[in-house]
């Protein structure tokens, strides 16, 4: 039988793929270009000139650092919460059988399946009913609701591909539950947890909708950028910050892809 792997894709398909990539990534390239423009008040194409001054201006603006610090702290704590809860949920759903297991699995992934505005309104209403003032922790709780889903999806897939015979063998050899988790389970799911954590961090860092309903007067980086676009002071500064956001979110995603691309080769999966 003739293999199709050596055949070249049709020219029309190549052109369509190139157009699709340009449609997706050309706006991002324009953001990078406008970070170097000499025009301060509007976006003019082509840029009248190029300069590096906006990087220094951005560096010296305290509002940028405040927003960046808040976003990093929220993303880090939300990711930590998601790693703990997501891993525990994944272990319970994948390694045990109990009544309502599929319902619980659906409820865990529901926050990321619902539109963000629904989640935001629900959280805002819950905080109002409980008389909880908006603070750093309301943002963290809002972000943790969907970060848990990212970790859960990665962990549950890896748990299901990990051989249960290894855990049984560890128990037969006298290891307790903690030793089995540390020396058998964790090495098999570590890359999935790391990838899920990085994806959760990236998702939290650039979240807008849920943050709008849970932040009050606080500004994360995406909220700060939105405010700057509505009432701009120095437009290129917004583009410089956008470059940082692209890099902060892109690098974890690429690293997570690298970690999980060979995820089907799990120790003991064929035993």
Please outline the helices and strands.
Elements: H1 11-34, H2 53-59, H3 62-95, H4 101-113, H5 116-129, H6 136-161, H7 164-172, H8 177-205, H9 209-214, H10 221-230, H11 235-260
Helix pairs in contact: 1-11, 2-11, 3-6, 3-8, 3-10, 4-6, 6-8, 7-8, 8-11, 10-11
Structure, described:
Residues 264-271 have low confidence and may be disordered. Helix 2 (53-59) crosses helix 11 (235-260), helix 3 (62-95) crosses helix 8 (177-205) and helix 3 packs across helix 10. The chain starts with 10 loop residues before the first helix and ends in an 11-residue tail after the last helix. By secondary structure, it is mostly helical. Helix content is 73%, strand content 0%. It is built from eleven helices and no strands. It is globular, with a radius of gyration of 23 Å.
Total number of beta strands: 0
What's the gyration radius in Å? 23 Å
What is the subunit arrangement here?
single chain
Helix content: over 70%
- Give the helix/strand class: mainly alpha
Largest sheet: none
Mean pLDDT: 79
Write down the overall geometry. globular
Report the order of strands and helices: HHHHHHHHHHH
- How many H/I helices? 11
Strand content: under 5%
Give the CA-CA distance, first to last residue. 32 Å
Low-confidence stretches: 264-271
Pfam families: BPD_transp_1
Subcellular location: Cell membrane
Membrane topology: Multi-pass membrane protein
Protein name: ABC transporter permease
């Amino acid at each position: 039988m003739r293999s199709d792997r050596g055949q070249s894709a049709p020219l029309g398909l190549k052109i369509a793929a190139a157009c699709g990539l340009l449609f997706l990534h050309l706006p991002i390239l324009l953001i990078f270009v406008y970070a170097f423009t000499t025009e301060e008040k509007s976006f003019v194409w082509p840029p009248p000139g190029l300069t590096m001054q906006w990087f220094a201006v951005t560096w010296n603006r305290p509002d940028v650092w405040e927003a960046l610090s808040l976003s990093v702290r929220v993303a880090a704590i939300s990711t930590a919460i998601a790693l703990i809860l997501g891993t525990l949920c994944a272990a319970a759903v994948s390694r045990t059988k109990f009544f309502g297991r599929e319902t619980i699995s659906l409820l865990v992934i529901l926050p990321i399946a619902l539109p963000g505005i629904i989640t935001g309104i629900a959280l805002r209403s819950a905080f109002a009913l409980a008389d909880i003032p908006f603070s750093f922790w309301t943002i963290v709780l809002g972000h943790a609701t969907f970060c848990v889903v990212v970790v859960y999806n990665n962990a549950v897939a890896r748990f299901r591909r990990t051989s249960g015979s290894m855990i049984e063998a560890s128990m037969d050899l006298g290891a307790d539950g903690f030793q089995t988790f540390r020396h058998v389970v964790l090495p098999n799911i570590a890359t999935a947890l790391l990838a899920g954590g990085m994806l959760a961090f990236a998702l939290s860092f650039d979240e807008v909708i849920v943050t709008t309903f849970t932040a009050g007067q606080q500004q994360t980086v995406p909220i700060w950028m939105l405010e700057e676009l509505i009432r701009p002071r120095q437009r290129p500064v917004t583009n410089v910050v956008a470059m940082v956001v692209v890099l902060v979110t892109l690098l974890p995603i690429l690293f997570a892809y690298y970690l999980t691309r060979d995820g089907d080769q799990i120790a003991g999966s064929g035993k």
